[in-house]
């Protein structure tokens, strides 16, 4: 099954060159093990826009849908047979990127 | 077959076979909900059939087979959700029950699934009691002083997370095992302690069903992990504590402190078994962990035929080791109680008073201070401490004991 792994951060664009190298290494290992689906970093929450298109005219609001001290600074989507495998992999991912991670299952299509 | 015999057989089968039936179904269908409900339906069918038809020669096999059929019926009813994998399981694997060893592995797998670190601690305890211990939701809710609906939701939510997040049904990989066992042992110790000092104004002060269940599950872990020192240590702690249960509450429902217990009422067989486990661990020469140190402390207490013969310097030395492994304020408090016996109440108060910030909401902190202040003849301060302890204590026998001690002061 697939898991969305969110990177938890309280700053933006805060990755150091050492962290980028460690993350690259870790991503190579995800690919080699057949766990890689996709990963990306995200721009600061201040760059986001919330859309409500449920009414007659769409309404656009500046900023993220939830204000909080911490936010999602990036994510992985990984493939793992079960949660133990996902947690084992992403424990290393947390070390590599030097941040806390949230692992959440993606509902099967 | 009299209905009474059939009922006794069902009660016994529930105690002995529940976890095996649930575990074997959980393994086959990878769904705790289906496993639990099918097991419950199989026992309900036994209640209907056994009084009329007689108890089957192998109740465990009968229950497993019946539960398997119930599970398949249920999956068929929910046919729109049946996937290929489950269809395949329905066609195959309708074998007679597996040999004992394999089924025991299923139970271990079930314990590790219920005690997965991705679940909240309270959910792990509740789920273990339900799925492995076979306790009903109302029983668990009563034991933990929450509404039945709250406990039901907690268990449902935990089962939902297991299914949706892909928590696997297996004993963890070898490299993860030490970390995972410690979580399982923590759950079993919580279950035991809830039984030994049960909370609630209308609850028995000691719930022997919970202590027995915790011991049974720890024994099960031990048969499967016989070389793990902490498993042996926890089992020894439980046995040596359980051995004192008959002397622990007086005829009029008051807690009897260790020093005043009738040691002749202690269970010799449990003490002998606990001591044997502690000795085996000492002989192994491996450095002891937290539970092994707690077991050794309990062994010193149960070694003394008279409370006055207790080797308090040994107890303090063991607590010194324990504080290094587990620097929690509760361990420091217990060490302080031993210091009081060795060096007197003044020295003990010096150890204990600084813990006040951390332990202000803990009844045993105030009860300990009350006893020390009483020994120092600081009666007013002692009375205040007893009042605080009584207000915080949730165990009826303990409240009765503390109230009498306070009233003796006037």
TrEMBL record, chain A:
Gene3D superfamilies: Dimeric alpha+beta barrel (3.30.70.1060). SUPFAM superfamilies: Dimeric alpha+beta barrel. Residues 18-98 form the YCII-related domain. Belongs to the YciI family. This is YCII-related domain-containing protein. It comes from Agromyces ramosus. The lineage of its organism: Bacteria, Bacillati, Actinomycetota, Actinomycetes, Micrococcales.
From TrEMBL, chain B:
Residues 17-80 form the RNA polymerase sigma-70 region domain. Residues 180-280 form the DUF6596 domain. The keyword Transcription applies. Residues 111-161 form the RNA polymerase sigma factor 70 region 4 type domain. Keywords: Sigma factor, Transcription, Transcription regulation. InterPro entries: DUF6596, RNA_pol_sigma70_r2, RNA_pol_sigma70_r4_t2, RNA_pol_sigma_r2, RNA_pol_sigma_r3/r4-like, TPR-like_helical_dom_sf, WH-like_DNA-bd_sf. Belongs to the sigma-70 factor family. ECF subfamily. This is RNA polymerase sigma-70 factor (ECF subfamily). It comes from Agromyces ramosus. The lineage of its organism: Bacteria, Bacillati, Actinomycetota, Actinomycetes, Micrococcales.
